[in-house]
Every structure is written in structure tokens, then in C-alpha cells.
Amino acid sequence: MRTECKAKSYRFQALGKRQVVADFKGGRLTSDAGALLLRSVEERFGVIEQLSRCFEDKRDPRWVEHTVRDLVAQRVMGLALGYEDLNDHDELREDPLLAVAVGKRDPLGAERLAEGDQGKALAGKSTLNRLELSAAESDQYKKTPVDGEKVGRLLVDLFIQTREESPQQLILDIDTTCDVVHGKQEGRFFQGFYDEYCYQPRYVFCGPWLLSCTLKTAEVEAAAGAIEDVQSIVRRLREAWPEVRIWVRADSSFARDEIMNWCEQEPGVDYVVGFARNSKLTGMISEELEEARRLRDQSGHSERLYRDLRYRTRESWSRERRVVAKAEYTREGSNPRFLVTSLAKEDFPAEWLYEQIYCARGDMENRIKEQQMGLFSDRTSTRRIKSNQLRLWFSSFAYWLVLLLREVGLKGTRMARAQCWTIRTKLLKIGAQIRVSVRRVWVSMASACPYQDVFALAWRNLNSGGT
């Protein structure tokens, strides 16, 4: 006797005298009703619309059911909602709510050309895969190439578009991270520091705003090519705001003469960059370290002193520069730290510069974690590096959608500082019933949703016209 795999109903443990019975007859339901807020973000700021213009569509329009804009929107929205794999879209293509969020005029897929596609408004994994692979290859099946230079400029342009007033000063944070690869991806390399085969993507942020993301191979140093990123971003920012002052902030991996020379020669641009300790620098603050040790012995907790130095490396620097030294003694022992800067000590005291400016760069680590852990920027598992770069961009624009939802939609709410996975869990993952008629799409969300007040304020902020 063959077992029936799809039972009509499922009986669970009784609740007192009541039977508990479940079935799959609830009709059109979704677990992602909060995606409507992402659609409001898109309608207001056009993040996906502008990204789609960076692609060229060479397909025969007679057979096109999904525009490039639809495909990009489906992929980016999917990442924002927590669907990291292309395989997920073979089920998601039947979700009418995601179709509404993408902007499909036929959210039920009733007008699809092929009989097997009817009822599936969105694209499947194979169509989305061809979109990604078109970044690296061009043949009869891959006809939607992307212009990487346009995508890079767009990240900066989005930042400019979201600012209502000209800023007086901006701080650009630069850093790299480890993107572990587990296959035979093009450009993979064993990085001894991370003890992994990996890529090493480089990011540039201004506060929470992502301005650049470049997928680098790991055999070159972190600073390789960074000057081109900085120059391009500064040039575009200066076109919009000619008077803005810009500080470049980074860890010791970027204390390179090329970067510092350029900043010193560019009017209105300065740098605050970590510098690796060495025996000469440590010897120059030996008295401060001894005093910090004495103070630690008296107090029983960490003590630190600061000193300004003038220093030049033996070969790698072309000139002498200001170095700020932190002479610290902790319970574990000596912990000297250094940074190099173009800012004058008369205007920017050593302690303030280190603790208030340089240490604040640590917040960038949270933004990178949001990208990797929350928006799957490390899902770089295609064979070609250019396709993996496109995946990194898709993740970056998903980050922009959630960022704008937080900075604009959630302004003034209890989730105004929430990270992306919290926003997704509490505000985007809302169960709802969907009813589609000729004139309306009704989305009836769960009455027990505990964040209805936040949803209402987000809707109001995104549809009020003000920021």
C-alpha cells in the first residue's frame, strides 16, 4: 500500500478538549508583507530603477516577459527579505506579494505566455542566473551586461541624492574584510592572515552610507587600488559640494605614501590613518609607557597617555609626518598604538583625535557585518569573479533599501537604530492574506503583529514627502 505523501490535514496534540488540525488551504498567503515598505522606499528614491539603468538589454523583446528592471528588483528585494540563494526564487516566483513589491502589473501570473508559467508572476532561478552570468560572459544566452563604472558612480550619486543640505564635512571610512570561498571560484587565493581561501572585498562608507564596494582577490595588499576609489569618490562629492571638507579614515593597512601624498596635495582633504607599531616608535614613547605602567599599578585598571611625534619611515614615506602615539598599559601589559595624520596638532589635540575620531571608525565593522551576515554579500559562489562582483553589488543595493527604510521610514521610532536583520524579523516578516481583484490588491496583515505602530509610522514617514 502506497503512503499518501500529501495529507489533506494534519492533527497535532490536543489543546484541552479541542483538537488541533492544520492544512494548506489558507489561500494566497505571504510571510513577507513588510516588503510593501521596501516598495515605498523604491517608489520614493528609485534605488532599483537607477540600478537597472546600468544594464543593457540585448534580448529579443518579442520573448521578454521580465524586464531587466523586474529581474534586478526581484533579486535585490529577495536579498533584503532574507532569500540569499537563486534557488529560493523557484518558490518565490509564486508569491503575489513579492510580485507586488517588484511592481508586476499581473501579480498572479495569469497572463504568462507559457502554460507552465501561469500562476507564477516572477522569474525563476535560471532566468536570474543568466542575469548574473551576463556580467562575466556574453553569448546567445547571456544578453544583459552591466556597466560596472555606472554602478560604482551610482552608489555615490544615491548618497548625494539623499542629502537635502550641503554638508560641511564628511569622513570616508575604508576597510577590507574576508569573504571565504569554498569552491574553485576565479581569483580565489589562500590568505595567510585569515587562514582561508577567500576574496578580500574593499568597502568605503560615510557613516552608515555605502559609497563603494570592490571585490578584490586576496593575493594583493588591502591598499592596492584604494587610491583610485578615494579619488573617484572625492571627485564626485566635490562636483556636488565644492566646499565640503573630507577626511579619509582607515586602519594601518592603508598607511601608504601614495594615499597620504594625494590627500596632502588635495585642498580640503585630510587623513587619519592607523600606523603599525615598530621598535623605533615604541622607543620614542618609552617614558610615557613607563608612566602609564606606574599609574596602572596604582589604580588597578588600564591607563593611557598621549604624545605627538614627528616621524618618517626609512624608505616607504617620502616625508616626515605627524604621528599620534597612545602609550597604554592594560592588565595584560604594554599596548602602544599609533596613527598618522595630516591634521595640525594646534587644532586637533592628540587625545581627542585618537579617541573621538580614529576609534569611531570601529562602527564601520557593524556596517560590514550587516552586509555579510544580514544581506549575504559573501554569497560569492559563482565561477567567475565578475559575476561575484555583481552579487556583491546586488547585496549593496539591498543594503541601501534597508538603510533608507531605517534612516527615513523608521526615523523617530523605537527601531530607528535597529540593524537590518532586526528590521527584517520584526517589520518585514509579517504574515498576510492576499486578495487580488480587478481594482485592488488587498493585503490583510496579521492582527497580532506586535509592531503595527512602527509599521504605521514607517508608512507615514515614507509617504509624507519629507525626511
Structure commentary:
The chain is of the alpha+beta class. The protein folds into 2 domains: 29-146 and 394-463, no CATH class; 149-371. Helix content is 38%, strand content 19%. It has 16 helices and 17 strands. It has helices at 35-45, 47-52, 68-80, 89-92, 96-102, 125-133, 148-161, 226-240, 257-265, 279-284, 286-299, 350-358, 363-375, 385-409, 420-428, 452-463; strands at 10-15, 18-22, 29-30, 169-176, 179-180, 189-191, 196-199, 202-206, 209-214, 245-250, 269-275, 303-311, 321-330, 333-334, 337-341, 432-436, 441-445. Strands 4, 8, 9, 10, 11, 12, 13, 14 and 15 form a 9-stranded mixed sheet that branches. Helix 9 (257-265) links the parallel strand 10 and strand 11. Helix 1 crosses helix 14 (385-409), helix 1 (35-45) runs parallel beside helix 16 and helix 3 packs across helix 5 (96-102). The chain is globular. The chain starts with 9 loop residues before the first strand and ends with a helix. The mean pLDDT is 94.
